[in-house]
Fold each of these.
Amino acid sequence: MNIRPAIFCLTTVTLALGTQAAFTQDIEVTHSVLPDQSYTLIYPDTMEASGGIDKPLTINNPNAPLQCTMSYVPVDQTDWTPEDALASLVTAEVEAGWRNTFPGFVLGAHGPTAYQSDRALLYEGTSTDSPMGVPLTIIHTETVAHGLGYTLDCLFDTTQAEQARPIIDFIIANFSTNADAECCVAVSPLTEIVPAQ
């Protein structure tokens, strides 16, 4: 599966995330209403959802550069695995694809990971010359399930990684390609991720 990065609708808000990373807050659960495009997206209620149905579903923190976008993509390989995708990952191609939107994007850690429902490929990278005016960390995940390709792409202000990364890890670990998933999966360290060289 060759999945292109999603195009983010970026805001220019650059407020610090502060204590919003604490998971004492409530959560929102969004389920698909289309039986042939199932998903469950679980996220802190400080984030707002937009889109869906016939366009990517985006969750965005209105007070900070923290955003995730879930999209469907057509696939030919129904026997796709994250290991196969990792083996065919070409650093130069990945970086070139993301640099169209995020100048200076450099690929970092990558490897298999897990959604609540499926194994997935994860890779991350950074853009020091982003259109938001702050350095960004972009985390891309993808899988194939029910004959569909799913991508879940998140970004956050790199300088706020200590607060933002636990939120992103929670969203990824609890994402499901099933429409009836429930909250919540405990987040464990990603032991299979290969550090940037």
Amino acid sequence: MTGKRFVLALALTLAGTAAASTELDAVRAEANLEKRSKLALDNAASALRSAREAYQAGDTATVTAKTDEIGESVDLAYNSLTETGKNPRKSPKWFKHAEMETRELTRRLEDFAQQMNYNDRAILDKIRARVEQVHDELLTGLMEGRKKK
């Protein structure tokens, strides 16, 4: 019986991973880079909610997949804003939105880590560090602006 449960859990995890990549592909299809950034951050928040639910259900594999999706989403959001070529100080709307969303995402990741078993917290360490790094880069861009060449 446990063999069947394992196969079922593996199939559900793979289906969840395929759905996650499909969601990110839909976000990548957005032509407007600023909107793509917002959609990617929305996807990261959704992936965090899914990771919490999976952790409560005891599905560590899905938690790992969803945290990877959070990282990919945050990177996509940041890269999309960078590709606009806009100066964050002169056009702060989307940069400020991304900065606030990444700050909130960092806070929610820290809360999630506190709710996790101590041994399971390592799953979130890499993603938390990356989200904090993106937040700091966005904040620096808003405060300093682009370097003059």
Amino acid sequence: MEKSAVETKILADALTPRQIVEELDKYIIGQFEAKRSVAIALRNRARRQMLTDDMQDEVSPKNIIMIGSTGVGKTEIARRLARLVDAPFIKVEASKYTEIGYVGRDVESMIRDLTELSVSKVKAEQTTAVEEAALELAEERLLDCLLPMPRALKSQPRSKPTDEFDVDEDIDIDDIDIDEDEDEIQLPFEFETTDEQNEALEKQRERHLKTREKLRQQLKEGKFEDRPVEINMKSRSMPFVEIFSPGGIEEMDINFKDMFSNILPNQTKKRRVPVSEARQILMQEEAEKLIDMDAVISDAIERVENSGIVFLDEIDKIAGRESRQGPDVSREGVQRDILPIIEGSTVATKYGAVRTHHILFIAAGAFHVSNPSDLIPELQGRFPIRVELKSLNKSDFQSILTEPKNALVKQYTALLQTEGIEATITEDAIDEIAALAFRVNESVEDIGARRLHTIMEKLFENLFFDAPDLEKKSVTVDADYVRGELAEIVKDQDLSRYIL
């Protein structure tokens, strides 16, 4: 396929901004401006890959700052976006880097963690791709455990039986007589065998192979799933090594796991497990052998560099305050350490160097006591797109309760169905719950949609407790039920502050 055709396919396979917003609408209510911004940023990634190589390096991602109180959907938008395009995604809290001090050496760990997640993701995909081949190899090893080959035949090459046989014939493994402990002296030279001995060995080999194929058929039919079998598996224990390094082991660029695996001999241990469990263990081992880890790491790093998304939460916590007395070195220090990563730098990981030039950074913060303008100017310039998310009102709460793909009402009714209880939540109950959530957010503290979780949990608390013992298997939750369970708590401001 020519380059132009490949480029056209990249853009054709990518979702359009309108499609991205429609997908996000299935899980997130409102916040159209924020969805629109992230959809455009995502589409621009596909557009960048259609440019010439020298132009691609010049086009940097348009990082985004989301401004809004907690619970309005900032994290959910970023998380759903990454899942939508199957991109490496990590969420980090910017405030945690202030705990290290103003040096902030640990800020590069976000890229290392993102790379680790990407490697695990690609490895899982490759494991799925080689699953059939790994299953066949695991099956061969299982047959070796169930029906060991006699010593006299081990020197002979394994082959399929030549004549026809009835695979439907039932075999009881316990009735198979295999002399595993026969005394046989291995000499450095071989005796010449007669034609009669060769013919006898050939018949014994054919008989063994026929039995093996019949066992294979019964193994596929699941007749030995609960039968215990003894297998040799790799021992995963590694020596414990404690390293004292202020920068952490990652800065030393040493992968001690691989180093010890090369130095120490491979250790195996015997385990007696059911055939069903043994199959999974052996499949994992065989899949490890079939996977090309160099290709996995190369693909994972490429995905991080071109498709990775880092969600920097609580960025307002490292912004300076207007009322501060003098410079805050810890906060500004962290900003200056984060800046090179967002600008574009090369981070050393145990899998190799990772360039951050085209990773998309989405920052978020409430900015109640600070403003985006309180960030250092260099960092502000790296977030050219700013979106303000709106606080949720009563109608938003009603939509959140019912409209998303896995809405709260659907979740709670499904939980009660596990106890055999059919719960019906009426429209007036949903209106009452939404009104209570909005009222408590206004009077206590605005925590957005998370208020619905606290109210729903308190509302269904008694029902969840009594559910296993209820004789009546149908329950109707209406507005009166909601008021009866929650009215006293809502009236008492001090009580609602702690409970809701």
Amino acid sequence: MKELELKYGCNPNQKPSRIYMEEGELPIKVLNGKPGYINFLDAFNGWQLVRELDRATGLAAATSFKHVSPAGAAVGQPLSEVEKKIYWVDDMDIEFSPIANAYARARGADRMSSFGDFISLSRTCDVATAKIIAREVSDGVIAPGYEPEALEILKGKKKGGYAVIEIDPDYEPKEIERKEVFGITFEQGRNELVIDDDFFSNIVTKNKELTDQAKIDLAISMITLKYTQSNSVCYVKDGQAIGIGAGQQSRIHCTRLAGQKADNWWLRQSKQVLSLPFKDDIRRADRDNAIDLYIGEEYMDVLKDGAWENIFTEKPAVFTAEEKRAWLDQMSGVTLGSDAFFPFGDNIERAHKSGVKYVAEPGGSIRDDNVIATADKYDMVMAFTGLRLFHH
């Protein structure tokens, strides 16, 4: 297949629309459904991300994409019992394979942003992964292969219209890439930068001790940023992104946005949230929305009389600011990556509030000394990579 006609482009009024190859065949097969223009943008960006994560770590990888940026990304390290609970998979009678673990983590980190996601998997989609996908609101998935039973499960989603794409894992694009904006063609060399252990060898802080897990998390952070709309920063812990801030004009706003998402991930593991008395018939999306409100500043939206009765069997106590801060102070060992240099130490100050211990950024700011000094104040380990990772 050399080209594939699409229903429309980014919006319904943008017609005609297609994807095609100038030379050779498309490296994909659509096994089910009718993926759209944005679906393919998410699929191809996500596939690059998970393929690179798998190569860098040797672990199965998954990402959950929304609007051409990842909402979550992870490798297939085992899930703890608490993680299974906060990702809503603790009730599943399945054997959690590495790729299933990877997707549960990628989807679970920021469930609000992942609602209606497009999924990318670095390895064959097995039955366990398909069963997790089947219960989530999602637009489609791309993977290098599907077990027959897994494919049948996925075909049952969205009344048979769920988009399932198989990609040739051996496909390699040309070294030069092009796109048009306003009728004008842009051309550049593909970003083929390899991110490995050597990428983090220039440690500029007093503390230079990188653990093996920190090296994996740094790779996840920087590879995720490589496919995230800039400006972007990414918080990672124990093999998964826990907070991604994308497309912000100011880096400190990006750091705050991603930091708040990381904080929410940790707050969801508190006893106050784990013990929330949800009604049995509440939908998963409504449960996610309720938790997001409960741990945020607008908690009375779910706790006021006339509201809580629709969600809970009894009225929960307020999760006070003091209680939240005390719980957040227990978060540690977090990694933070930035796609360009931090211009001020305020980014490090904000990162510290979310338990950041390891940092990777390009360096090159005229205030690098201030940024390094701030990291040293909190005994962080910070590497200057020397290379920017903008993605637009």
